[in-house]
Task: structure prediction
Amino acid sequence: MGSLGGHDGRERRWRGLDGLESRNRPPRSLLVALLLASVTLITLDVSGGGSSPLEPARRVVGEAFGPAESAAAAAVRPFTTVPAWFRSKGDLADEVRDLEASNAELRGKVELAGFDRNRLEQYDGLTTAAEDLGSALVPARVVALGSRQSQSFTVTIDAGAEAGVGPDMTVVNNDGLVGRVLRVTRSTATVLLIIDPDSTVGGRVGSSMEIGFVNGSGSLDQDASLDLRLVDDASVPARDDTVVTWGSTTGPYAPGVPIGTITEVYSSLREASQRAVVKPFVDFSALDVVGVMVPSGAESDRAIVEADGSLR
Amino acid sequence: MTTTRWLAAFAAVVVALVVQVSLFPHLAWNGIVPNLCLLVVVAAALTVEAPFALVLGFAAGLTLDLAPPADHIAGRWALALTIAAFLAARVRQDVRPTALAVVGTVAAASFVATSLFALSGVLLSDPAMSVAGLLEVVLVALVWDVLLTPFVLPPLMKLFSRLSPQWATQ
Result:
């Protein structure tokens, strides 16, 4: 090891004595060149920010890998149900009992909801006038997931530019908010999940209408994957309250999409603000079918679900 | 011969990447999946000459950086896998590596690559992550990689040594 620096001539002679040894020795110049290339790429990507010079490269690689990932996911999909075959009758009975309980609870809520809904409809009708807020959903399936080693919570879905999907569109599933589209290729799109540490969603507490910001905590743990900080320090969010998005129709997140429920509230003395832990409605460890919110009437290569529930 | 070897190595990286992002998430432990691209790079580093392995490490890392659904700063996996390839190429012996040596190399390379990636994230504050979370990721990834070594490394090493007889380790 000591012979690696300086005394070039002597070192070469020493290597020459042992030809077998020398070919084990990885060339330092190549290593340095490749490391510098990596650092250059990192610098380019960091300084580029949103319009990074590597975006075209990402797109090209995405065009190539997208169809391969879709095909692999389609091949794997039939086997993902295999664990369900081994569930016992006891498990199923437990599940039926839980579902019956939650069904009864929901029915109770629905019976009360009629009055609220009627009142809300009147207000909505007043404020939005004739403006059409309805948006359509492009159905898609998750075909690839980013690994935890890569430290970002992103997935690939099998709908892209041809399906009418574009950057910054809201992605939902039947439980609630999933994330937003980062970039698209022809047939796939990369989605940033709201549990990613880099993700910030404008959130509104359902009962008090207070606004705040929902950050991902970078954990797949269902109970603690989101943090909510309210803009107004004085208001205390209530437990079991629902958090919905307050975004604009032009921004990345469409308004009124359910995000999750508040499970715990902490008051931070240092920052003199309230921090709440939000449990998302979406189970991010079992994402499959999602919908991308596109403007109503958008062109698409597949049937899209319109705002009134019809298929087009 | 070199062209065939490059094509084979590139195909191996592509297949590894697709399987890694599309199949293994269904089996993942807390979202941590085995790094198959790293296994391909280590197999090359243990079998063929070092420059090839280094460039393959860089190329595989770059593919991991750019292929969807990756969204971290590009170049981070390239850096980590180049250094992993360098280390794996250093421990190579001129006799056929024993099973234990292969497993040890994979474990070391996995530890170094995942840690380097995590450290570069800390330096760039790409996503802020807790130390406990980082340790969990590094250790579980290491266990995953070692578990898959007996299934992935032998066929890949056989492939690489057949495509480069002048460097083959008998």
Remarks:
- The two ends of chain B are 19 Å apart (CA to CA).
- Chain B touches chain A through 67 residues (CB under 8 Å).
